[in-house]
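queue> pop job 88
queue> type: inverse folding (structure -> sequence)
queue> payload:
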């Protein structure tokens, strides 16, 4: 059981060599589930506390970068008595192939879950070949 709890701890994101962060906040690697259908590849990233105004998704060359910024978790009139996770931002990058149609990428966020749909390019979709009698 203790080993399972260890896997649930947020992992800090590594800062790329030669760069500095502009915000004095911790940055975590969000957990991501990836699903593939015949039409698309779907990424579901857990980013608690992030809403649609705090998400930035960029695609540069073949690197898809997901960045989520959370609002300050302090509540007026309350003091924190106990917290099970640290507040901070999220960052994760993926290398994508030429199979993805770069013009049809869609993203939505709901209840702290970012959903990114990477539609497959027409050339790589599986298709049925009709057989004709000779």
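queue> result:
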């Amino acid at each position: 059981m203790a080993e399972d709890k260890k896997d649930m701890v947020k992992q800090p994101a590594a800062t790329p060599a030669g760069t500095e962060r502009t915000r004095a906040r911790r940055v975590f690697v969000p957990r991501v589930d990836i699903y593939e259908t015949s039409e698309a590849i779907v990424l579901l990233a857990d980013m608690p506390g992030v809403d649609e105004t705090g998400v930035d998704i960029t695609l540069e060359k073949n690197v898809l970068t997901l960045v989520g910024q959370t609002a300050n978790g302090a509540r007026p009139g309350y003091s924190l008595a106990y917290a099970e996770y640290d507040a901070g931002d999220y960052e994760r990058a993926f290398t994508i192939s030429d199979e993805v149609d770069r013009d049809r990428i869609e993203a939505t966020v709901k209840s702290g879950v970012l959903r990114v749909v990477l539609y497959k390019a027409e050339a790589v979709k599986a298709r049925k070949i009709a057989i004709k009698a000779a």
